[in-house]
Amino acid sequence: MSQETNSAAWQPSARSDLQVDTAPEYVPGAGEIVIENQAVAVQPFDARIRAEAYVAVPYPAILGNSVAGTVVRVGPGSGRGGLEVGDRVVADTPVYARKGEEGATRWGGWQKYVVGRVETTAKIGNADFDQAVALPFALQTAVAALHLYLGMEKPGERLAGDGEKALIWGAGGSVGGYAVQYAKSVGYTVIATASPRGFQRLKELGASEVLDYRSSDIISQLKSLGPFKYAMTASGDGPSQLALAEVLQPEGGKFASTLGGAVSFPSNVERVYEFFAQATQKPQFKLFAGWWYQEYLPRVIREGLVEPTPVEKRAGGLAAIQRAADDVVTGVARKKLVLNPQE
Questions:
Q1: Any residues with CB less than 8 A from the CB of 209 and at least 6 apart, and which?
Q2: The Cα angle at residue 148 between residues 298 and 284, in degrees rounded to 5
Q3: Confidence check: pLDDT of 82 > 90
Q4: Confidence band (pLDDT; 50, 70, 90) for 158?
Q5: What is the mean pLDDT of residues 294-304?
Q6: In the prediction, which pLDDT does 80 show?
Q7: E-assigned strands of the chain?
Q8: CB-based contacts of 193: which residues, under 8 Å, 6+ apart?
Q9: For 289-295, what is the mean pLDDT?
Q10: Are the C-beta atoms of 42 and 64 separated by less than 8 Å?
Q11: Which of 10, 133, 164, 190 has CB atoms 3.0–4.6 Å from 68's, for a disulfide?
C-alpha cells in the first residue's frame, strides 16, 4: 500500500457532488487496522448526509461506515483482538461517531483503504464480501433497538411457548425484515405490518400475521391481536409512531422508532429513538459490541442465520457512488447497493 494507490470519493462541502481524488496512506494506531476495501454498502443514512447534509460533518469529508475487505496493516496491540494481516473482515467504522476528531476522514468507508477499529470489526471467513457488507447496518439497527433499548432477550436466553408477541410496523424494508427475524429467533410470536407485496416474504421470515398498514381499521386489527410486549416502527414516520401509541392503549408502554420528529404522545407512551446502528460505537455498550462482533455477527454471516436483504452490485467503483447514493435517496434503488472501491 502506498499513497499513490489510495483514493477516495470526497465530498468537498455540504450537498456538493462527490469528487474522486487521492487520499492519504494510513498508519494504524493502537487498536486499529487498515482494510483494503473490497465492498461498501451505500446506506440511506450516508446518502442523506451526502444529498441533504442530514447530519453536520466537517468538510471535506469521506462518508460511509459499512465496509468489507482484507486486513493489510495491524496497529500496536491490535493483534490482541484476534485480527491479523490477511483476515477477511466486515467493519463498522466510527466516521460519524468520531467526526469531530482531527483526521476523521481515515474512518470514511468511501475509499480504497480505510482504518477500522478492532472492537467494531468481525471476521467473515470465506463469506462473500458483498453479502457480508450489506448486513450489519440494518441488522444492528433492528437488534440494538429491540435488545439494547427495549430489553428483548438474545437468542437462546428465553423459554419459548408463552405466546408473548412483538409488533413490527413497516416490516417490508431491510430493518423491518431483520426485526421480524430477530424477534422470531428469540422466541416471540411476531405480528407485522407492510404493503401487500411483502406479505409472503415476511411470513417466510417468521411473521405469524402480516397486515396492510394502509387498512382503515388497522388499529382495531392490531389491538385484536395484542397485547404486545415489544413494539417497533421500522419505517419511523410520524403516522406509524402515532399508530403504535394508539395500539398500546389503554395500558400504554414504549416503542422503538428508527426516526424521531416532533410527535405528541399520550402521557403513558414513551418513544425510544436513537441512532441504533451506531450503538456499538458507544462506550457504554462495550459488552454488546463484544457479543455483536465476536459472536453474533460472525455466526449470522457464516451460518446464514438470517435471510439477507437483496443486494444489487453496482460497477464503477468510487466514481459510481454518487449515482448510487442519489438512487438511494430518491427511492430508485429497491435493493441494498454495494460497490467495490478497488474498481
A1: 191, 192, 225
A2: 90
A3: no
A4: confident
A5: 94
A6: 61
A7: 7-10, 19-22, 32-41, 66-74, 88-92, 113-117, 121-123, 165-169, 189-194, 207-212, 230-233, 253-257, 269-273, 311-314, 336-339
A8: 167, 168, 169, 170, 171, 210, 211, 212, 213, 218, 222
A9: 95
A10: yes
A11: 133
The average pLDDT across 302-324 equals: 94
SS3 content of the chain, % helix, strand, coil (to 5): 35, 25, 40
DSSP tag of 137: H
For 173, the enclosing helix (H) or strand (E) is none
CB atoms within 10 A of CB 149: 16
Distance separating alpha carbons of residues 143 and 151, to the nearest angstrom: 10
Reply yes or no: is the peptide bond before residue 250 cis, omega within 30 of 0: yes
Q: DSSP class of residue 172?
A: T
- Please give the Cα distance from 76 to 318 (Å, whole number): 30
Quote the cell numbers at residue 210: 402480516
- Written as nine digits, the cell of 78 is 491490535
Rg (CA), the chain: 20
| Predicted pLDDT of residue 55 | 86
| CB contact at 8 A, 199 and 171 | no
Do 142 and 183 meet the contact criterion of CB atoms below 8 Å apart? no
pTM recorded for the entire structure: 0.92
Provide the mean pLDDT of the chain.
94
- How many Å apart are CA 287 and CA 289, to the nearest integer? 5
Q: What is the amino acid identity at position 29?
A: G
Q: Is-contact 124 305, C-beta < 8 A?
A: no
Residues 6+ apart with CB under 8 A from 244: 167, 169, 231, 233, 255, 257
Beta bridge partners of 282: none
